[in-house]
């Protein structure tokens, strides 16, 4: 289990906080379905339906991720922006995403358009949350440059497909989850799920290849402690 305070109880819930927190964490941390999480809990002696797990994820996921985001250090001053198409009920949507130079996701935005207005909306959200960066790297979509001109932002804009590989890993994770879920059900559901999923990934992917084994273990322990603290605050 993740949480160690097994006495934590949530009003109106039959199971204690450690079990609920573990289920929400496992669902967003790994490429698992709700039924997969149900099976993991069953192996640990916890008999609960996947529909109950769905309710836990819906109720507690956003609150935990918001608290994790509030604890994050400021991002680097170099951002990578990109957009990828996703299908929702047969309708084409665009998932706009921004990561910093360390690969941490800064924000995602599901929109129906791939134009200047959509690019401007993403960049405005990013600047409101994180301030202005030094460099923005994008592909050759002209909407980015037009959006930056409309916002009158004096940043170094580098539009080159080959420079934007940093963001591709985040798209691959989205594709994997999209396949497991059998496509997203609505733009709102995709926005909510991916926001939590990316925030969880930021916390638990500390760049293992860039640190020693002991540093990695310390980072992982800190990530678990942060998750547990956020869950406990939500339940307080």
Please give a structural write-up.
The chain has 236 residues and is α/β, with parallel strands linked by helices. It has 2 domains: 17-71 and 206-235, no CATH class; 78-187, Nucleotidyltransferase, domain 5 (2-Layer Sandwich), CATH 3.30.420. It is built from 8 helices and 5 strands, in the order H-H-H-E-E-E-H-E-H-E-H-H-H. Strands 3-2-1-4-5 form a 5-stranded mixed sheet, with helices on both faces. Strand 4 (135-138), helix 5 and strand 5 (156-159) form a beta-alpha-beta unit. Helix 1 (17-29) crosses helix 3.
Keywords:
single chain; 236 residues; alpha/beta; Nucleotidyltransferase, domain 5; 5-stranded mixed sheet; disordered N terminus; plasmid; IS6 family transposase; DNA recombination; transposition
User: What is the CATH superfamily of the largest domain?
Assistant: Ribonuclease H-like superfamily/Ribonuclease H
Largest sheet: spatial strand order:
3-2-1-4-5
Helical/strand content category: alpha/beta
What's the average pLDDT?
89
Percent range for helical residues?
A: 40-55%
Order of helices and strands: HHHEEEHEHEHHH
Largest sheet: 5 strands, mixed
Q: Radius of gyration from the CA trace?
A: 19 Å
Number of discrete domains: 2
**The CATH class of the largest domain:** Alpha Beta
Q: Globular, elongated, flat, extended or rod-shaped: what is the shape?
A: globular
Q: Which residue ranges are poorly predicted, with pLDDT under 50 across at least 5 consecutive positions? A: 1-7
Q: Count up the helices.
A: 8
Give the N-terminus to C-terminus distance in angstroms: 20 Å
Protein name: IS6 family transposase
GO biological process, one term: DNA recombination
GO molecular function: DNA binding
Domain DDE: 77-204
């Amino acid at each position: 289990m993740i949480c160690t305070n097994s006495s934590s109880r949530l009003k109106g819930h039959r199971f204690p906080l450690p079990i609920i927190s573990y289920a929400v964490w496992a669902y967003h941390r790994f490429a698992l379905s709700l039924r997969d999480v149900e099976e993991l809990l069953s192996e640990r002696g916890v008999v609960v339906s996947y529909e109950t797990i769905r309710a836990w994820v819906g109720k507690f996921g956003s609150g935990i991720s918001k608290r994790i985001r509030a604890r994050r250090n400021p991002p680097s001053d170099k951002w990578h922006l990109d957009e990828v198409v996703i299908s929702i009920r047969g309708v084409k949507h665009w998932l706009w995403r921004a990561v910093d130079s360390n690969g941490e996701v800064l924000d995602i935005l599901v929109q129906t358009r791939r134009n200047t207005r959509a690019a401007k909306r993403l960049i405005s959200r990013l600047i409101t949350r994180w301030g202005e960066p030094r460099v923005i790297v994008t592909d050759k979509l002209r909407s980015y440059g037009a959006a930056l001109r409309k916002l009158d932002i004096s940043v170094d804009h580098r539009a080159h497909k080959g420079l934007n590989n940093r963001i591709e890993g985040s798209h691959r994770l989205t594709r994997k989850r999209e396949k497991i879920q059998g496509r997203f059900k609505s733009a709102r559901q995709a926005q909510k799920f991916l926001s939590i999923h990316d925030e969880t990934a930021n916390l638990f992917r500390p760049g293992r290849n860039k640190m020693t084994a002991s540093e990695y273990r310390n980072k992982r322990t800190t990530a678990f402690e942060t998750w547990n603290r956020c869950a406990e605050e939500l339940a307080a």
